[in-house]
Amino acid sequence: MEKVFAELQEAIENGETQAAMDKTKDALKLGLRTDKIIQTAINPAFKDLGQKMFDGEIYVTDVLMASRAAHAAMYVMEPIISRFSGATKGIVAIGTVAGDLHDIGKNLVIMMLQGSGYTVIDLGIDVPVETFIDAVRTHKPDVLALSSLLTTTLPELDNLMEALVQQGLRSQVKVIVGGAPVTAEYAGRIKADAYANDLFEATEAVGDLVKNRIGKYAV
Amino acid sequence: MNQRENFFAMLEGRKPEFIPNIMEVYKICIFGADRADQPLVGGLDAFGVNWVVTKEGEMPEPNRFMFEDIADWKEYVHFPDVDALGIEEAAKIELADVNRDEVIVNVYSPTGLFERLAAFMGFENALCSLVEDPESCQEFFEAFADYKIACMNRFIDAFQPDVITYFDDLATANGLFMSPAVYRSVIKPSHKRIIEAVTSRGVIFNQHTCGKCEKIIEDYVEMGAKMWSSAQVSNDLDGILEKYQGRLIVEGGWDSSGPASYNDATVEDIIAETVRCAKQYGPKGNFIFLPTLLNENGNAIFVGDPRLAPMIEAWHTVDKL
C-alpha cells in the first residue's frame, strides 16, 4: 500500500502522466479510497514540488508537467469522486479582474487546485465586478480567488472587495488575491483574507481558508 | 559629456559622468517591430496571430492558438516576406528628427524565440513542448531565428542603430520558466545565432528579460550581449552590477511591485524610489535607470503623467557620478 502511494507521488513529481494514471488505477484496485490517495500521494507531491520550487531546484515547466500528471490521476478517480457528494475539498471561484487579459498564473493555480481535489469554477479573464458577485451568489464558493497581473488593474481588486461588502456577501466567502504586482501589504490594505506569492502558496492558503484556519498566508 | 558620449564611456568600461535614464539617453524606435513582430495598435501580425492591446502593451489574444502540438508547426507557420514588411519606410518616419550626435538610437525587437512560440500555441503548451518535444522546438527556433536575423539585418540597414533591444521574457518574479539546462539545450543555440548576427555588424545587443533570470545572465554575456534590461529587483542586482562591471550594462532597478509602482503612488513615493535606484545601483558605473511608473491609462512614459516631471527633476539631483 505504501509502495503504490510512493510510486504515484513519484510519477506526479516527475510529470509522468501515463505512470500517474497507472498507479492511480493500481491504488483503486487495492481498494484505497480516493480521499486517501489524494491526501497520501497527490498532496505530498505538491508539497514537495512547492519546497523544491521555493529552493529554486525546479521550474515552471516541471510544475506544469506535474500538474498535468496530477490531473490525469484525478481524471481516473473522477467517476468515483463524483458519486459521492461532498467529496470535493471545497469550491473555489477564480478569475482575472476586469481590464486584465492574463490567464497564465490563473490557469496554473486552477490546475494545482483541481489536482489537489478542489472544485474550481473558472470565471475567465477580464472579469467585471458584477460577474464575480453573481458567481458568489450562484455557486456559493468557499473561496474567491482573484488574479491581477497588471499594476493598472490593481484597483479592480479594491472595487470588488467594496462590492462584496455593499452586496452583503463579504462574510459568505473568503477572498485570496495574487498576481505579479500584488503584495501582502496590498492584500492587507484591501482587506483580503489571504495573499499568495505563487501557485503552491495559493493552494496551501486555499486549504487554510476552506477550513477557516488562520494560516501563514492570512493577511 | 552629452548622453551619447556618456553612454559609450559606460559601455567601454570608462567612468561616466552621470547615470543615464532611458527617457533621455535613447531615441527608441518601435515602428519596425510594428511591422515585423507585433502591431502597436493590435490586430493581426504578419504571421496571422491576433494581438490585443492592454494598458501595459500588446499581447496575443488569450486562448486563441494557431496550433497546440509543436510537431505541427510547419503546417501553420508561414514566414512573412521580409522585403514586404516596410521596414525602410518605418525607419524614415521614425528617424526624421533624431540627432545621432546626441542620443543613442535603440531599435526594439520584441517577441523573441520563446515569446513567439507562446504567441502561436499558448504559454502552457509552449512550456510543455520544451520538455516533451525538444527536437521540434529546436527546429522551430532555428527557423524562427532565420526570420529574426533577416529582420535584424533590415533594421540595421534601415535604422543604423547603436543598440538593438531583443525582448524574450523567460522568467517569473520567482525564477526561470524552464531550467537553465532546458534553456541551454533548446533555446540558446538559436538565441546565440541572433546575438551574433547583430553584434557581427557592430551593433550593441541589449537582452530584455523581465523577472528573476539571474541564472542565465552569464549565458547572455558569454553570447555577446552588452546590456540587460529590465533588470528587476527580484535578481541580485548589486551582485550582478559588481560581477559584470565593464562587461554588462544593467538597465532597470525600479521595484515594479513596490508602492512606487501603484497607480496612486505619491510623488514622494516615486522620488524615494528614484533616489534609491541612483544611490544603490548608480555608483558601479554600469547602470541605466528604467522606471516603471504606471497610472490608470498605462505606462506613464508612453501615456504621460504629471508625476514624471518631478521624478526626472529629482533624478537630476542624484545622477552625477
Summarize the structure in words.
The complex is a heterodimer of chains A (219) and B (321). With 219 residues, chain A is an alpha/beta fold. Chain A has 2 domains: 2-81, Methyltransferase, Methionine Synthase (B12-binding Domains), Chain A, domain 1, CATH 1.10.1240.10; 91-210, Cobalamin-binding domain (Rossmann fold). In chain A, 56% of the residues lie in helices and 13% in strands. Chain A is built from 9 helices and 5 strands. In chain A, strand 1 (91-97), helix 5 (104-115) and strand 2 form a beta-alpha-beta unit. In chain A, helix 4 (60-81) packs across helix 5 and helix 6 crosses helix 7 (154-166). The longest helix of chain A is centred in the N-terminal third of the chain and has 22 residues, at 60-81. Chain A is globular and about 50 Å long. The termini of chain A are far apart. In chain A, 55% of the residues are buried. Chain B has 321 residues and is of the alpha/beta class. Chain B has one domain: TIM Barrel. Chain B contains 14 helices and 12 strands. Chain B has helices at 3-11, 22-25, 31-36, 73-76, 87-94, 113-121, 123-132, 134-159, 180-199, 217-223, 237-243, 267-281, 300-303, 308-318, and strands at residues 26-29, 43-44, 50-54, 57-60, 104-109, 163-167, 204-208, 227-231, 249-253, 287-290, 294-295, 298-299. A 7-stranded parallel beta sheet of chain B has the order 1-5-6-7-8-9-10. A 3-stranded antiparallel beta sheet of chain B has the order 2-3-4, with no helix packed on it. Chain B is globular and about 55 Å long. The interface between A and B is large, with 34 and 37 residues. Chain B: InterPro entries: Methanogen_methyltrans, UROD/MetE-like_sf, Uroporphyrinogen_deCOase. Chain B: This is Uroporphyrinogen-III decarboxylase. Chain B: Residues 44-289 form the Uroporphyrinogen decarboxylase (URO-D) domain. Chain B: One of its GO terms (molecular function) is uroporphyrinogen decarboxylase activity. Chain B: Pfam families: URO-D. Chain A: It holds the Pfam family B12-binding.
